[in-house]
Amino acid sequence: MAQQVKAVVAHAVGEPVRIETITVPDPGPGEAVVKVQACGVCHTDLHYREGGINDEFPFLLGHEAAGIVESVGEGVTDVAPGDFVILNWRAVCGQCRACRRGRPWYCFDTHNAKQRMTLADGTELTPALGIGAFAEKTLVAAGQCTKVDPSASPAAAGLLGCGVMAGIGAAINTGNVGRGDSVAVIGCGGVGDAAIAGARLAGAERIIAVDIDDEKLRTAIRIGATHSVNSRKEDAVERIRELTGGFGADVVIEAVGRPETYEQAFYARDLAGTVVLVGVPTPEMKLELPLLDVFGRGGSLKSSWYGDCLPSRDFPMLIDLYRQGRLDLDAFVTETIALDEVEQAFTRMHEGRVLRSVVQF
Ligand code: APR
Ligand code: ZN
Ligand code: ZN
C-alpha cells in the first residue's frame, strides 16, 4: 500500500521550501522504501532550490541520509527489511565500460528508482540526487542502499552519503595520500574538513589548512590539521612551500571551486605532487596558466567526483573506523534539527555558520 509521509519540497526557484504530505509508492522491482532516520543539509539542496541544477521542479530535497530499509521490491537480494543503510546517489549498472574497469562513479547507465513519489494532487517529484530524503520515508533503488553496522549514529552515518565522503575520498582515494605525506587543503568547509580527516586517517605527517576565515581554520585544526594559513593575510603558496621545506605539498586538495584557489593549488604542490580538485567551479570561470608551468611541473592534476568512492567498500569501512574512534564523524554534525527547520538551516549554511545541520527523524 502506498503511504503518505511528511517531506520538504522546493516548488519554485528561490521560494522557501514547504512541508508537504507526499505519497511514497510500494517498492517495485529493484526498489526499496527506506524509513529515513537522519539527513544532512547540503549546499546541493540549496542549489536545487535556487534553480542551479535543473528546472524539474518540484524537488523532494535531501540526499545525505541513513535509515532502515522498510520494504523491498521483487528481485532485491542485497538488502532486506530491517537493514541499516546509507544512501548513495546512483545505483550503477555494473556492466558498462566504467563499471567493468572499476570506476563505477563514471557509470552513466544508472538505475535509480523507476517509480516517482508524488504530491497530493499527483504531481511527480524529482528527488534530489536521485534520493529525496528530507522525508519520513523515501523510495530509492536498492542499489542506492549500502548496509553498514547499525550501532553507528544515523546523523553521522548519513553524512558519508555526500559531502563528507567527497572530502575523505578526495584524500584517500583520489589523492592517494600516504603515510608521511604533506597535504594542503584549500577551503575548510565541510568538504575540506573531511579531506583533512581523510588525510589524517591516511597517516599524513603535515596537514596544512588554508582558508580566508579564522573561525574555519580553528575548526580545521580541531579536525586534524597541523598548521593553518589565512590566505587573506598571507600568501598561501609561499606559506605552504615554507611549511614543506621549500618544496610544496605532496598532495594539495582544492575544496573551494574558484580560479584563484585552483591556481594556488596548482602552484602549491611539490613538483611531483598531486593536485586534487573537489571544489566545483561555475561554467564562466576560467584559469590562465603559462604553458611552460603546465609542462614544466610534474605530478598530476586530478578531479575527484564523489570522492571516487565505492559505496560498498568505503561506507562500511569508514563506519568501522568511526566506531573504533579513529574517524570523528560526529565533529561534522553541528546541530540536529527537525524537518520543518530546513529553510532556517539553509540560512545558517549560507552564512557559513555550520559544518552540517542534520535533520533527525
Ligand atoms: N580561499 C580559501 N578559502 C576560501 C576562499 C578562498 N578564496 N573562498 C572561500 N573559502 C572557504 C570558505 O571560507 C569556506 O570555509 O572555502 C570554504 C567553502 O566551504 P563551504 O562553503 O562550506 O563548502 P563545502 O560544502 O565545503 O564545499 C566546497 O566542494 O564539493 C564541492 O560543491 C562543493 O564547490 C564546493 C566545495
Ligand atoms: Zn550533498
Ligand atoms: Zn555502469
Automatic annotation (TrEMBL):
Known cofactor(s): Zn(2+)
Magnesium is among the record's keywords: no
Protein keywords: Metal-binding, Oxidoreductase, Zinc
Pfam families: ADH_N, ADH_zinc_N
Signal peptide start-end: none
Enzyme Commission no: 1.1.1.306
Top-rank lineage group of the source organism: Bacteria
GO MF term (any one): mycothiol-dependent formaldehyde dehydrogenase activity
Stored InterPro entries: ADH-like_C (IPR013149), ADH-like_N (IPR013154), ADH_Zn_CS (IPR002328), ER (IPR020843), GroES-like_sf (IPR011032), MycoS_dep_FDH (IPR017816), NAD(P)-bd_dom_sf (IPR036291)
Domain Enoyl reductase (ER) as annotated: residue spans: 14-359
Family assignment from sequence similarity: Belongs to the zinc-containing alcohol dehydrogenase family.
Protein name, per record: S-(Hydroxymethyl)mycothiol dehydrogenase
Source organism of the structure: Streptomyces physcomitrii
